[in-house]
Specification:
Number of strands: 18
Distance between the termini: 41 Å
CATH architecture of the largest domain: Alpha-Beta Barrel
Radius of gyration: 23 Å
Largest sheet: 8 strands, parallel
CATH topology of the largest domain: TIM Barrel
Oligomer: single chain
Number of domains: 2
CATH class of the largest domain: Alpha Beta
Order of helices and strands: HHEHHHEHEHEEEHEEEHEHEEEEEEEE
Strand order of the largest sheet: 7-4-3-2-1-10-9-8
CATH superfamily of the largest domain: Glycosidases
Helix content: 10-25%
């Protein structure tokens, strides 16, 4: 996952646009894949997990690059990685209690350390740590047991592998030789992806990251990709091994042929914020990835925790923009998810228990997102989510049809309204407004 430091890089990449890499040009999704896409759009809420050796240093997942830690020195962290407190059942149960329907976990991040049992390299959690167990296997098994789907984050770039050459925009001066075999690196990735899609049961999808590392910059303009990621080999391999598995790529571009969903980092679809954003939303299933504080990996000094209200609003706004919310946790090196995250997720779960009907299985509603909130829709009913609790009268301009009825989701009391050519006035009662989200059921003849 990209660090905030690279926000200017991504936003310029988006603005100028790039020539895309070769991809799976003739891709036609299987029936299983189309059904998986439908499931994904209905799921609406997932847990993102960033966990690896970097958690030991407590300075986020980019610590190797940001602190310029030499490869040989960074490798020593493996001797200290012994997360005996890791409990797959507790992690999955926490996600499920929060109302999440799937989990996406980092199998290998940019530091090159594999969190699973792989024959492609001995730089992995089974062979190179005192812990010596495959946490991906444990988590995948428990997710399957509890009815959640498992997705695998996989980094395209690698600050450790000497065959990741030529170097990209990151990971310089880390003690690697100035040579390597790119074709061997592609084969390394294909081997690992084959393992991930063969040894862990049904996999919901692969979440790629790092494409942006190999883009030319002349000081004024972005150019083309300076390498070939071999997507025309990698994407068909994934779809052959598991036809239902969905492919997404965090490249901040329009989706490439062969991709099955489109993601947006720290933003809603098409939104520009803090240097992060992306193109307009495509017709593919959409996903918005966000953090619970400011960091993806465990950061000992990041106390900038978002409130339960803020995160519920993120879930509601994502649904109102026809997207899922992938909400991140960065577990501690001992294997525990920090209490601040656990407490907030439990509180979110109390909300989804009561109001999940207005989120799960919905699509964006007939009323487009507004400053005051969004709408979702299911089975012909629009759920209008008013996120600004200070309003007693709400005017909805450019109303998309004739309003047939309006009532509070809580209690079912009817709401007085007046429709005019310019829009609809809703006359709300202060005692019926909710501090987090006032939900109104509407029947609209559009």
């Amino acid at each position: 996952m990209n660090n905030r430091f690279y926000g200017c890089f991504v936003i310029l990449l988006i603005t100028v646009g790039l020539t895309t890499a070769k991809a799976q040009e003739s891709y036609q999704p299987s029936q299983e894949n189309l059904e998986a896409r439908e499931w994904f759009q209905n799921a609406k809420f997932g847990m993102f997990i960033h966990w690896g050796l970097y958690s030991i240093l407590g300075d986020g997942e980019w610590v190797m690059n940001n602190q310029h830690i030499k490869k040989d020195n960074y490798e020593r962290l493996a001797d200290f990685f012994d997360p005996e407190e890791f409990d797959a059942e507790a992690w999955v149960s926490l996600a499920k209690a929060a109302g999440m329907k799937y989990i996406t976990i980092t199998t290998r991040h940019h530091d090159g350390f594999s969190m699973f049992d792989t024959e492609a390299s001995d730089y992995n959690i089974v062979e190179d740590t005192p812990y010596g167990k495959d946490i991906i296997a444990k988590l995948a098994e428990e997710a399957h047991n509890q009815g959640l789907k498992i997705f695998f984050y996989y980094s395209l770039l690698d600050w450790h592998n000497t065959d990741y050459y030529p170097r990209g925009r990151t990971g310089h001066n880390l003690g690697r030789p100035d040579h390597g075999n790119w074709d061997d690196y592609i084969e390394f990735m294909k081997t690992q992806l084959t393992e991930l899609l063969t040894n862990y049961g049904s996999v919901g999808g692969i979440w790629f990251d790092g494409h942006w590392d190999h883009v030319d910059w002349d000081g004024q303009n972005w150019g083309d990709l300076n390498i070939d990621w071999h997507y025309d080999e990698i994407y068909p391999l994934i779809h052959k091994l598991q036809p239902a598995a969905m492919i997404g790529n965090n490249h901040h571009l329009d989706p490439l042929p062969g991709e099955d969903f489109q993601m947006f980092e720290r933003t809603l679809p098409g939104e520009q914020h803090e240097g992060w954003g992306g193109p307009e939303a495509s017709d593919l299933p959409l996903e918005s990835a966000k953090t619970m504080n400011g960091s993806w990996g465990f950061n000992l000094q990041d106390n900038d925790y978002k409130t339960t209200k803020e995160l519920i609003h993120a879930l509601v706004k994502s649904a109102g923009n026809n997207a899922n919310l992938l909400l991140n946790v960065g577990p501690m090196p001992n294997g525990k998810i920090q209490p601040e995250f656990r407490d907030t997720l439990k509180a979110i779960g109390e909300w989804t228990d009561q109001y999940g009907e207005t989120i799960y299985g919905t699509r964006s509603g007939d009323i487009s997102p507004r400053e005051w909130g969004v709408s979702t829709k299911k089975d012909g009913i629009n759920y209008v989510h008013i996120l600004d609790a200070k309003r007693d009268t709400l005017f909805i301009h450019n109303f998309p049809g004739t309003l047939k009825s309006a009532k509070y989701y809580d209690g079912g009391a009817s709401i007085e309204y007046k429709q005019m050519e310019e829009g609809v006035f809703l006359y709300l009662k202060e005692e019926d407004l909710q501090q987090v989200d006032t939900i109104i059921e509407m029947e609209i003849d559009s």
